[in-house]
Amino acid sequence: MAQVSQEDREKTTALKDLLSRIDLDELMKKDEPPFTFPKTLEEFEYAFNENGQLRNIRTGEPYVFNAREDLHRWNQKRYEALGEIITQHVYELLETQCNMRRIYIPIDAKEEEPTSFIYVTNDALSNPSKLLVLIQGSGVVRAGQWARRLIINQDLDSGTQIPFITRAIQEGFGVMVLNPNENYLEKEKPETSSPVGLADELLDEPVEKKERKDDKENSKKKEFYEKYRNPQKEAETERIPVRDNGSSEDHVLYVWDHFVSGAAAKNVFIIAHSYGGLSFVELMNQREIEVKNKVCAVALTDSAHNIWLQETTKATQDWMQQTCCNWVSSPEPLDTPLDSMLPDCPRVSAGTEKHELTSWTSFASIFRFFSEVLEALEYEESQETSNIVTTRSGTHKSKHQDL
Question: Which GO terms describe its molecular function (predicted)?
Fold first, then answer.
């Protein structure tokens, strides 16, 4: 058996002595502050400057996550509270800067039913030529956002879809912004308690008194531990899904069926980031013929789809090879062709190794891709028209010659 050295015994004794002198009441005073945070950017003392960067109003410094060094959970809650304000700010920009409007879904929702919404330009459903559909990834991002982290730590251009919407409008697109993560209503669960009644106390047998006392002591210890480890218990909530929109995949399918499929646009273009790419491929699995007939180009950015796990057909894979392009995170220069790991669609470098940045760094390349597709379609149409004219002219000449 290994012998404990004198040095180890001294260290153990010193540690026990230190622990015995810790004032538990003082520890209790070091609990984290309440989770009550400002409701506006101004109250947070932050604002977006002329370059779309979030800056402290007083110091001009970027957002600081560790506002309190030793309180990570509190800092995280503060960051989330700011994120909710950012979401509302982006909604406001969609409405004021991009002149978009909300359409609530389900379109036949009852009065008390949970709802979600998408954003559309006024001509999204009536534009006869082009419609652009934007689908973000999963998580906390809502309509109009690619990455909340970029909005807070970098700028609005890189983190939101606003530059894409503005460019599309300038080029004559109708635009539809999906909202696949706004898919539930969160309600607080009512507190349930079962206090011991007076009758129960009177029925306690004397032999149980010691056990009951021990239980109380154990309960106090547990309460102290819980308070120190997790000082503020968050309210328990339950999520009530939005009908037919309870997941990103369901949402994309619903918007397709009720809006995109009936839109007047001859050509539909899609930009889908991360999990949005998976949701698009699932749409292909569910509405293959319709999508092929209406969609002419799909720009994916670091898409999370997997044709094997999603069991796509060979016909879908072939269509994706011709119609889609995936800009993926890579150290290679922008647009460098990369080996395709799966036989679905071409992969090129997004010019960045940061997943959340892939949409923004690919911005110019995506619109160039769309322009090339449109030029090819217009050329094909002109050739078809030319052939029809030539055929008719030839028919007229042959009839004239017969006479």
Answer: siRNA binding
Q: How far apart are CA 142 and CA 312, in angstroms?
A: 28
Is domain 116-185+240-381 in CATH 3.40.50.300, yes or no?
no
Query: Rounded to two decimals, what is the model's pTM?
Result: 0.79
The amino acid occupying position 241 is P
DSSP for 283-308 reads HHHHSHHHHHHHEEEEEEES----TT
DSSP 186-245: EEEPPP---PPPHHHHHT--GGGHHHHHHHHHHHHHHHHHHHHHSSSPPPPEEEEEPTT-
Active site residue 303: no
User: Does position 401 have pLDDT exceeding 50, yes or no?
Assistant: no
Instruction: Give the residue extent of every domain in the chain.
Output: 34-96, 116-185+240-381
Average pLDDT over residues 60-69: 88
- The catalytic residue among 274, 330, 359, 365 is 274
DSSP 38-76: -SSHHHHTEEE-TTS-EEETTT-PPP-S-SSTT-HHHHH
Report the 10 Å Cβ neighbour count for 56: 14
| pLDDT at position 225 | 46
Q: What is the pLDDT of residues 169-183, one digit of tens each?
A: 999 999 999 999 999
Q: Is 182 exposed, middle or buried (0-12, 13-18, 19+ CB in 10 A)?
A: buried
